[in-house]
Design a protein that fits this description.
Chain lengths: 429, 481
């Protein structure tokens, strides 16, 4: 046997070092891989502001004063493909963005009207407009991908605009009162924290009749507030309401422009998996919106009130109580995304994917669970009139839907390979 | 000496027969590099934080509850150290120190949280320990180079650094063979062989692949692929062991593992298995390959170093006893490796459902399983019941992993009991409303909802608090474009 002398260590070291360096480079470059969970999630093109509609995708940022034509809810039966599903979800989100923009525009008009010459009739009209805007937003915010999605959910293209429009459950009354008293917003809405903005701030101004505040009396806000006379306080509130309403319209426009073909054409990005890395990951992110029924509705909105969960309750709309209406709207939007955006669920949805994949039973189970949740919500009284037992009944009516999502539609058992939201990417087996 | 004694002597002689060390040295280099990459992946993908640092609650291995996680900084430092140790192992630098340290570190990170258990992490740990105990630094290593220089300076004869006992080769072959064979045996069940599940589900995530993606949607293809996977796993060791089929079998090994890497998020497993399958080649394969690459057959070395070994000096009695003890330990290790995957049969039922005997048994990629668990905490004094979603205690990754593994459900139930009682809710009972789906089936309760889990202790006995698996066949889930 011919035995060569051992290789010199420098050879090993060089090989090993070069290999590790190469691998490190490859791995580092791969961190944009959606499975890595460390995607950059950049907001990419369009130059949009993520804090409140300063510009939008190269389009004119000025929203029209009147309603724009949104048409009927998009929904047409078509053979299922994953591309058709992404397209349907995109068109549905875009249509809801259009509807919300109209509601926001109407709200702005009535808030301005009321601020210019306050009276009860105008206040009532503004409250109604706020309620309509809240209704539309409760549908819009279910589409938690792209412009509305947070970076925590849609790490690729999420812009987190939701928290500026509707900061619940992170809203903060003292922050709103701080803006009213200090007029800090006059330096620009970008300087105002999300917790003091959006529909919550408008709800407070339009629905809360009191002149007290919840900030510490010795705080700057407390002192500034206490220094205002009734007329100054009323004017300060209305001025802030106008600024916030303007900002909500700007945000609505920004959201819509992301979807518009002549804007950023976000549908095109979804169809090309632009930034998401794969079709499956794109579908994951879109589908995660359905988890709103589990986390936001069941746990946050009902968990505590039903006595089923030991958690603090943060009312979604504490001053203009329409919590149950919000839940109803949430569930309508759930159906639009899950079943189809058209009337009565017509159109391509996740149920069509299940049927095409041979899981018709699951598709129907989910529809039945959704119908049960909708029926329970439709028959539910205003939150203020409901008993804990009724809340528990509603909670239990929604739980099967959220259980089905976690048991079968998402996670390791998903027949569609849909990952659970925010689940850390990792190897398997 | 009786017949058995003669037989044992022959076996011992066969096991101690020297073979070329080249295979082991090459494996050391390749394995070390692969594991260095693996450590780098954990760092680059942020898994050190998400899997090991972020969780507030950790699932413990039975008997290893004392293992505590490090702080974030220390955990990151550990992974950098492990990457360096893996490279040192590859280089054979201070091998007797670096290789065991690497194996110990690898074992530690696996013991931090059961929910991170993966078959291939476990395999990597076993191989790391086998390597650490082996004389893999005998050739092509910094240690060997230093030893040679040391001896040369003192005019001593060169140490014999070209051979190892056949037992090492057999040990590695058994280890790798067990993984393949039992991975195949785990597929010998109706879901896999009759219904093509869960492969039919998983292929649906890859329909965007050029050419292949459309192929996956053709009826029958997932089932055919299931059979191919079953036949590959159960027979590949045979084909790799037979000299005439070995090159072709290895080509199939590479193609198979490239495909699995392409289709599934199984990380380093394909690479580790592709490298490990090399142990079935002739022990001198690295020299032959090097010679072929240099196109110089003279450097190829002897074709079969096992032929006519030089007469060895008779070992001292204590060394002979030590050698026999080592051989005995190796034999016990092999027996344990063979029995571990079979232990599930002591429990009866469907191991994919109840999971008793699931870990450490190479049931790789055979279940698409998950579910929803709501913990129902009942105050004994008031009778009030709280619904506790697992995400209040677990990361999404942990929750997903726990959902189908009842021993983890039990651990969390005990933790929730302690937490509620510490928060002043008084004595509580904890039950679970569980709905678990296996391979596309309708969800079914896994844990008996009537059982107060605070009264149950984890152990090796059959879990009477679990409900039987659903009987129906999985629905025909198929990939869709």
């Amino acid at each position: 046997m011919t035995v060569r002398s051992p290789s010199k260590p420098v050879v090993f070291a060089s090989i090993a070092g070069a290999a590790l360096a190469a691998v490190t480079a490859v791995v580092a470059c791969s961190t944009d891989d959606p499975r890595a969970g460390t995607g950059t999630g950049s907001s990419s093109s369009g130059g949009t502001s993520s804090s409140g509609g300063s510009s939008s995708g190269g389009l004119d940022a000025t929203a029209p004063d009147g309603p724009i034509e949104c048409g009927a809810a998009p929904g047409a039966d078509a053979p299922f493909t994953k591309q058709a599903l992404l397209s349907a979800a995109s068109k549905c989100a875009a249509w809801h963005a259009c509807e919300f923009q109209n509601a926001a525009t109407a709200l702005r008009a009535s808030v301005r009207d009321h601020a210019a010459a306050p009276d009860e009739a105008k206040l009532t009209a503004a409250r109604t407009a706020w309620s309509n805007a809240m209704e539309e937003w409760s549908k819009m915010e279910l589409f938690q991908f792209g412009p509305v999605g947070s970076k925590a959910v849609d790490q690729y293209h999420g812009r987190g605009l939701r928290s500026f429009v509707h900061p619940w459950p992170d809203h903060n009354r003292c922050q709103v009162e701080g803006q009213i008293a200090s007029k800090g917003w006059q330096a620009g809405m970008d300087a105002v924290l999300p917790s003091a903005r959006g529909l919550y701030a408008l709800e407070y101004v339009l629905h809360y009749p009191g002149s007290d505040h919840v900030c510490l009396p010795a705080s700057a806000t407390g002192q500034a507030w206490d220094a205002l006379g009734p007329a100054d306080l009323a004017k300060a509130k209305n001025d802030y309401a106008v600024a916030v309403a303007d900002n909500v319209v700007a945000l609505a426009l920004e959201i819509r422009n992301v979807w518009l073909p002549e804007g950023e054409d976000f549908e095109k990005k979804l169809l090309a998996f632009d930034g998401y890395g794969s079709e499956q990951e794109t579908l994951n992110v879109v589908a995660w919106s359905l988890f709103y029924a589990e986390k936001e509705i069941k746990d946050f909105k009902l968990g505590s009130l039903s006595g089923a969960q030991a958690r603090a309750y943060v009312p979604e709309t504490p001053f203009g109580p329409r919590e149950i209406e919000n839940i109803r709207a949430n569930l309508r939007a759930f159906r639009a995304l899950y079943q189809g955006c058209g009337a009565n669920g017509v159109g391509v949805g996740f149920d069509d994917w299940l049927v095409a994949a041979g899981q018709a039973d699951l598709a129907n189970d989910l529809l039945a669970a959704l119908a049960q949740a909708e029926t329970a919500a439709d028959g539910f009284p205003a939150f203020a009139q409901a008993t804990e037992a009724q809340f528990l009944e509603l909670y239990n009516a929604i739980k099967p839907l959220s259980d089905l999502l976690k048991t079968r539609l998402f996670g390791s058992a998903s027949p569609l390979n849909l990952k659970l939201p925010a689940s850390a990417a990792s190897d398997t087996d | 000496m009786g017949t058995l004694g003669v037989l044992l002597r022959r076996v011992e002689a066969a096991l101690l027969r020297p073979v070329d060390v080249a295979w082991l040295a090459a494996y050391r280099i390749l394995f070390g590099l692969a594991l260095a990459i693996s450590m780098e992946r954990f760092l680059a993908y942020g898994w050190v934080d998400t899997l090991l640092v972020a969780p507030r609650f950790r699932f413990r291995y039975w008997g290893f509850a004392w293992v505590e996680p490090l702080s974030s900084g220390a955990m990151h430092a550990l992974f950098w150290c492990l990457a360096a140790l893996a490279l040192a192992t590859a280089a054979g630098l201070a091998f007797r120190l670096t290789a065991p340290l690497f194996a110990a570190g690898l074992t530690y990170i696996q013991l931090v949280d059961v929910s991170t258990y993966l078959n291939h992490y476990y395999l990597a740990g076993l191989l790391a320990w086998l390597l650490a105990l082996s004389p893999a630094n005998r050739a092509w290593s910094v240690d060997a180079w230093l030893r040679a220089r040391w001896n040369a300076r003192r005019g001593r004869p060169r140490a014999d650094d070209r051979e190892v006992a056949t037992a090492w080769l057999i040990l590695f072959r058994v280890q790798v063979g067990v993984v393949y064979f039992f991975a195949g045996l785990a597929k010998a069940q109706s879901d896999w062989l009759l219904h093509g599940q869960p492969l039919g589900i998983w292929l649906g995530a890859s329909t965007e692949l050029p050419l292949l993606g459309r192929l996956f949607t053709v009826p029958g293809v997932p089932l055919a692929m299931s059979w191919c996977g079953f036949l590959f796993d159960t027979t590949v060791v045979l084909w790799l062991s037979w000299r005439r089929t070995r090159p072709w079998a290895y080509a199939v090994v590479v193609v198979f593992h490239v495909m699995t890497r392409l289709l599934f998020d199984i990380g380093m497993f394909p690479l580790i298995m592709s490298l490990s399958a090399l142990v079935f080649f002739h022990p001198s394969w690295p020299r032959a390959l090097a010679a072929r690459l240099r196109r110089s057959p003279r450097d190829a070395g002897p074709p079969a170093p096992s032929v006519a070994p030089p007469p060895a000096a008779r070992p001292s009695p204590w060394r002979a006893r030590l050698t026999r003890a080592a051989l005995g330990a190796g034999a016990i290790y092999c027996v344990v490796q063979v029995l571990m995957p079979l232990r599930c049969h002591l429990y009866g039922g469907n191991v994919l459902w109840h999971e008793q005997g699931m870990r450490f048994s190479w049931r790789v990629m055979v279940r698409a399983k998950g579910g929803a668990n709501t913990f129902l905490v009942r105050q004994k004094e008031t009778g009030r019941v709280f619904h506790v979603p697992p995400h209040e205690y677990l990361t999404p990754y942990q929750e997903n992993e726990m959902s189908g593994q009842p021993d983890l459900v039990l651990q969390l139930a005990h933790h929730i009991q302690r937490d509620f009682e510490e928060r002043g809710f008084g004595p509580v009972e904890v039950r679970v409303d569980s709905q678990v789906s296996l391979n596309g089936r309708r969800g079914a309760p896994l844990v008996d909802p009537r059982v107060d889990l605070t009264t149950i202790e984890d152990g090796l006995a059959p879990a009477t608090w679990l409900l039987p698996a659903p009987n129906e066949a999985p629905p025909p889930t198929r990939p869709v474009l």
